[in-house]
Amino acid sequence: MKKIVILISGRGSNMEALLAANLPCTIAAVISNRADAEGLGIARNHGIPTAVVAHKDFADRETFDAALAKTLDVYQADIVVLAGFMRILTARFVNRYRGKLINIHPSLLPAYPGTHTHARALQDGVKIHGCTVHFVTPDLDHGPIIIQAAIPVLQDDTEQILAERLLYQEHRIYQQAVRWLCQGQIELDHNNYVRFRFPKQAGYSLISPGLE
Ligand code: GRF
To answer: Which of 117, 118, 168, 177 has the fewest Cβ atoms surrounding its Cβ within 10 A?
Structure first.
């Protein structure tokens, strides 16, 4: 069984959904760059080993990432799952885990990379918003896409309501992506395309607002 390590910085709801998903892998550890990350307590309650590599203890990104990689080696991570991990990783780190490092982002990439994705989507008046699981490359929030979920933006949506509705979908697609990766059903090819061992087809289309 492959070993995965989940990296978090805060609440850890995506991590918690992965812990509950009965995945075909061993969750070897949860690591945070912040000692006060809420998710650490949740992981401990699930009996998962935790570690803190505090970015504040390091002079620069290179030395922080080197310490992070060392900790990942302790747990012999085959796959590294970023779940609300709020640090930009160096190209050296990202390249070391090429094809084994994935992230979830709360927008339909390549739209809205970066932060405040829900507020920006509302501001633009988009009618469809969503979330994306992608392989991480040195190009921030632009890695090859594994799976996306789309949801309609409703008339009375606030940033918080939209975020909550989307979070539910994040939890659904992240476990699917991790499952595919653990089972060797997807891989990142040399051209940076995500290859599925079996072709995956869309189930239905989302039109928003709905047709009459
Ligand atoms: C999620 O919205 C995720 O897409 C983004 O950060 C948030 C983390 O939430 N990268 P949680 O810590 O998993 O609850």
So the answer is: 168
